[in-house]
Amino acid sequence: MAQYDVFPNPSASAASGIPYVVVIQSDLLDALATRLTVPLAALDFVGKVPAALCPVITLKGQRLHALAHYAAPLPVKALRRPVDNVSAQASALVTAMNVVLSGV
Prior knowledge:
Blueprint: E1 5-8, E2 20-23, E3 34-42, H1 43-46, E4 56-59, E5 62-66, E6 72-75, E7 84-85, H2 90-102
Antiparallel strand pairs: 1-2, 1-7, 2-3, 3-5, 3-6, 4-5
């Protein structure tokens, strides 16, 4: 499992509006039983949000908001097979987490 791998949302009840999660945790912490993830939500599910906090991530042609303020650990067992990797868009995700941590 690599940093910025994208997985189907393991929560069936939330998957319609938040179809994916992206692992933002460093690969150096692979020994842990969890991965820090950010939900990727459909644009119409979220509404108007601050761009720096919730950047648009493109996944297989679909535009989704990364909800950095909802970052949460998920058990590795819940994350089956990655559907993509968005490392090319890592700077937007890192910036969003910086907004969560520092407000800037």
